[in-house]
Amino acid sequence: MSKERPIVFLTALDLEYQAVREHLTDVRPHRHRAGTRFEVGRLANGGCPAVLGLVGKGNHPAAVLAERAIAEFDPFALLFVGVAGALWPQVGLGDVVVATHVYAYHGGTSEDDGLKARPRVWEISHESDQIARHLYRDGTWKRHLPDGVPAPNVRFGPIAAGEVVQDSPISAHAQWVRRTYNDALAIEMEAAGAAQAAHLNRSLPVIIVRGVSDRADGTKAATDGADWQRRAVVNAAAFATALAEELARESHHGRPADRTGRAEDKPMGGDIRNVAGGNAWVGVQAGHIHGDVSIGRSPESGLDPAARLADLHARLRKARTAGEVDEETFTAAQEELAVVSESLAASTEQGKSRAMIALKKLRGLLVDVADLAAKVAAVIAAVRGVS
Q: Bias regions of kind Basic and acidic residues — which residues (predicted)?
């Protein structure tokens, strides 16, 4: 793939995968070293690079493969696209639901008087939410629908993600979900996993877009037989790919662009270095800065991976001693640092690639300690600068 950061689409079912793939062009396979097959291409309008992956059913595989996609491709956003069951009568078949936040509803404690909820919740980023709502209001996303397909309702609200297929209105499970998460519009099985993986990667924007294919009330066989799965995912894929275009316009260039692609402000690109000698100092005077900024005595000392790694090792040990990093995180971070050192020692492109993957995992582990995360970013920049 090009150095331009892509957007990642993930789906659980082949039907969903095919619906998204219809909106991509120049598609070709990409094999992950662990055997996962992604496909890479571009949005069909000639837009940004795109990655498509199939995760299967469930939050656990969704989390693992979302993390794998993030580490492999370093996307600017992740979209999970598919079908869901409606939890309330006002949500119609074929409607598109964009998750304002995701409930992992299986968290709880079982006590004598019943199951008490202990949910995890992930909110959509404010910027992503604003872009999605604007896209819905202006209606331009509808051009992505196939000819003759009527535009569905688009709804914004919570989605509940668990580990079971709900298909009853009266079971104890169904009643508990509707009672405990009574603002959730729909229910599905993968959003919590994808949201957790994105959260652990410096809060990467993740947007869940679902088409309603059934009512989770015992009529799933009938609605599936009436082709509502296909119809619902066509609607979801249309909105998701339109949303991807808007996210790309704003993510890569920092400032909003109008619909003709003209950016309001163009950011500085490439590497800009100011080097001072003797007793001189270099100041930074800039408007919007996108990416990493390094200030040092010389480009050579600032971009030495070995020196950066040694600095990171020392700061990590201090963080453990000060209690900023727990023992489990420290051990995991040390393991990733060992991979980086071993991989860079090979002095090959394959070794450099392995080192970058390990560094991205390390960045996720240390994201809660700001200066450690910054030092990881500095190592990443240094490794990228190695020819």
A: 247-268
pLDDT tens track for 181-205:
999 999 999 999 999 999 999 889 9
Round to whole Å and give the CA distance between 383 and 381.
6
For residue 38, report the phi and psi dihedrals to the nearest 5 degrees. -100, 165
Report whether pLDDT(271) > 70. Answer: no
The answer as to whether 310 is a domain residue is yes
Asked if 166 and 34 sit in the same domain, the reply is yes
Residue type at 20? V
Range of the domain at 197: 7-251
DSSP H helices in 146-274: 172-180, 191-199, 220-225, 228-251
- Angle formed by the axes of helices 327-345 and 305-321, to 10°? 170
The predicted model gives 270-283 an average pLDDT of: 48
Q: Is residue 131 part of a domain?
A: yes
233 or 115, higher pLDDT:
233
In a domain, 278, yes or no: no
pLDDT of residue 142 exceeding 80: yes
**β strands within the chain, DSSP E:** 7-11, 24-31, 37-43, 49-54, 77-86, 96-104, 108-111, 114-117, 120-123, 154-161, 186-188, 206-214
Residue 294 belongs to some domain of the structure: no
**What six digits make up the tokens of 36?**
């996962």
Q: What DSSP string runs through 118-134?
A: --EEEEPPHHHHHHHHH
Compute CA 126 distance to the chain's CA centroid, rounded to the nearest angstrom. Answer: 14
**Terminal C-alpha separation, the chain:** 18
Would you state the structure tokens that stand for residue 216, as one six-digit string?
A: 């989770």
Q: Work out how many domains the chain is built from and give that number.
A: 2
Which residue in the block uniquely carries the two structure tokens 């059934």? 214
Residues in a beta bridge with 80: 10, 208
User: Strand 37-43 to strand 49-54: parallel, antiparallel, or no bridges (unpaired)?
Assistant: antiparallel
